[in-house]
Amino acid sequence: MTDTTTGAPCVLLKHGEVFLKGRNRSRFTERLHDNLRVALRGVGGSTWIKTAQNVTVLGGQVPQEVLVDRARRVIGFNSVEPAVRVPSTLDEITRAAVEALRSVAAERPGCGFAVRVKRRDKQFPLKSSAMEVRLGARILAAVPGLRVDLGSPDVTLAVEIDRRETYLSWDRLPGLSGLPTGSSGRALVLLSGGYDSPVAAHRAMRRGLACDFVHFNGAPYTNPSSVYKAYALARELNRYQPPGALHVIALGRAQKQLAVAGAGRLQVVAQRRLMVRAASVLAARTGAEALVTGDSLGQVASQTLANIAAVDEASALPVLRPLIGWEKQEIIDEARRIGTADISVLPDEDCCQLLAPPRVSTRAGLPHLQAVEKRLDLDEVITALLDKVQVMHPGDEAEVPAATAAECAVPPAGVR
Ligand code: ATP
Ligand code: MG
Prior knowledge:
The chain is built from 13 helices and 15 strands. By secondary structure, it is α/β, with parallel strands linked by helices. The strands form two sheets. Strands 1, 2, 3, 4, 5, 6, 7, 8 and 9 form a nine-stranded mixed beta sheet that branches. Strands 14-13-10-11-12-15 form a six-stranded mixed beta sheet, with helices on both faces. Magnesium ion (MG) binds next to loops.
């Protein structure tokens, strides 16, 4: 693709909620563009970005479909539209409009079309409605086999006229909408290997949280399969944000200590409390102001109201639960859409299965939990957990060669 002045390919990115931000809008737009620049890294050619009100225009010496693919992963755009740009003259716009519909007619003969013109430059000699009529007539005259259909067109040619340039687009792909990642601050996601926590992380990102991840495994009593999964999941999630780090903490010994202290049916909730205590300390290091989990109310015994309250009581930070009202099937469907389902479905040795009691208490009482915890030196346990935390950078291709979900059963280089 060459970037000529007439009919040069570009991509229009329509802003989502950022557009509603009033006086703060420029801060959000800057963040959106920073994230877009990160997503364009390594794209294999130079790129440029410019803004016209609530639209970002993206172009460069890179195939248009590559730009579209990268932009669709950036949170904060309502739609991503492959487009061409031409100088804002009547002739150039008309020529580009006819060419565009000619290419459409070649693929979809007989289809109904409409032209929608937005004239942002009020100096332009024709009003939007007059321009729509003119372009429609020229297209009909030049391209056989098309018909006008203003009610429910198969194809809508959108023409946006700015002072210097005009953008024409006729394909509209949905974007990820939401707030730009990082505009709401940082969070630390408790990432297990299941379906839920990756979806929760993605939701948190869409509300503007830049996410780092912490995964607890049962080492030294379990194999590292859950770490490989967490790594693959974090890498998939990092495609939607400037990459966050994955912290891996070996919980096995602490789990044993809880069991020896007589946690019994409270074992799982006591472990969760240890997780959020350790995560709270880690969050202070990573600059996170909240924890995120994949809990959904009542989904499993450990996610009753009483148990959730017991976990919250142990956390120094707010625990956000984006999926609290979601059903399992909704979560799995979303996991498929965002690309984490194929990884979550793989088998692993999860630390929660280690020492899990036959029946988990659904009403963990705080006094009983605290009595168990008193039998340990909690500060010492947390310090020991954090002493050996492993930090990885999923998505940093310099660190690990690219691997697909299927490959994550094989240890990635650098992960032991
Ligand atoms: P998921 O599908 O996310 O594993 P789940 O349905 O298995 O969730 P639980 O195992 O009860 O539910 O876990 C609830 C939440 O606690 C998880 O969504 C996750 O945020 C956190 N969590 C559980 N196990 C771990 C772990 N080993 N490492 C990090 N976080 C964990
Ligand atoms: Mg789980």
